[in-house]
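Hi R.,

As promised on Friday, here is the backbone we talked about, encoded as structure tokens. Could you run it through your design pipeline when you get a chance and send me back a sequence?
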């Protein structure tokens, strides 16, 4: 066992250090723990899930190599994707998703914040057309992008993600589509399913009225320090490091114009993967039957409350 190597991408040295110091990663235990998680999945008759090393390691790393937590999170991930068909619709890469790729609303910047640092997502609210893009379409795009990142992006998984949201020309009719229940349902997936930590959200170019409203939102947040509202681009440059911003904001981290074609290529290259994804589900009836005989620790996971609060460094 110890001589075997896990079939995963090697981490950049700086990122490997983060994994060891912050996520309790121990090279000699990886193969054993990945194997134990795979064995558990194969033993659950109600769960059909991906079991390749790279996919499983994302959940183990996120859960600081705590096997029980990784089981819960993986189970929640697939339970959610099975139950929330209304929000996630089909799991196929369709024209709607490719249109969102091309829209220029979302961009993943090419360089993380240093080799051992978080990935940067950039969102341009002004590119959203409410007549074309519903809130659930946008959420669905996020879910697909996250699944691709589980498979491809070690910085995103190990060091987390920083969101920069540009509020220039935000369509206010989009905000009218939001309702609290839907927001809670979407947030459950981001908080309890997807294996990445949100390190910070930076908002720029918001009107004074919007800044005021966001300030109120920030006041009721459990983790206020995660939301930063910048009154100008210079303030954002100072917070993130100018060189990590796109050229459009005075930085050196690629151009926003390159984002759409990169996404389109990536989503198309995962088309087959998502086609296969239809078979990965949780069978609730089988699960309930198997849990009648099991102990309470694997009781059905509610969207909220049954998870320990996730800590952010």
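Update: got your reply. Pasting your designed sequence below so it's all in one thread:
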């Amino acid at each position: 066992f110890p001589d075997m190597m896990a079939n995963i991408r090697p981490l950049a040295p700086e990122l490997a250090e983060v994994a060891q110091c912050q996520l309790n990663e121990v090279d000699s235990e990886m193969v054993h723990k990945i194997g134990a998680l795979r064995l558990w999945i194969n033993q659950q008759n109600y769960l059909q899930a991906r079991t390749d090393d790279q996919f499983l390691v994302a959940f183990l790393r996120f859960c600081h190599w705590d096997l029980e937590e990784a089981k819960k999170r993986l189970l929640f991930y697939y339970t959610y994707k099975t139950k929330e068909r209304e929000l996630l619709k089909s799991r196929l890469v369709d024209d709607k998703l490719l249109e969102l790729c091309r829209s220029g609303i979302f961009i993943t910047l090419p360089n993380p914040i240093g080799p051992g640092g978080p990935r940067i997502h950039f969102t341009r609210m002004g590119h959203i057309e409410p007549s074309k893009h519903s809130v659930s379409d946008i959420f669905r795009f996020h879910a697909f992008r996250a699944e691709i990142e589980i498979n491809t992006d070690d910085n995103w998984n190990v060091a987390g993600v920083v969101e920069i949201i540009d509020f220039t020309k935000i369509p206010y009719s989009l905000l009218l589509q939001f309702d609290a229940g839907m927001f809670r349902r979407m947030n459950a997936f981001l908080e309890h399913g997807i294996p990445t930590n949100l390190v910070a959200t930076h908002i720029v170019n918001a009107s004074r009225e919007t800044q005021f409203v966001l300030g109120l939102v920030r006041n009721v947040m459990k983790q206020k320090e995660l939301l930063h509202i910048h009154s100008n681009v210079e303030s954002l440059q100072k917070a993130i490091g100018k060189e990590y911003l796109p050229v459009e904001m005075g930085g050196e981290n690629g151009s926003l114009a390159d984002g759409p074609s990169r996404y389109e290529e990536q989503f198309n290259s995962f088309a087959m993967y998502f086609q296969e994804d239809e078979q990965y589900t949780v069978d609730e009836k089988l699960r309930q039957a198997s849990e009648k005989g099991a102990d309470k620790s694997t009781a059905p996971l509610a969207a909220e409350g049954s998870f320990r609060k996730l800590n952010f460094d």
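One thing I noticed while checking it: The first strand starts at residue 106 and ends at 108.

Thanks again,
M.
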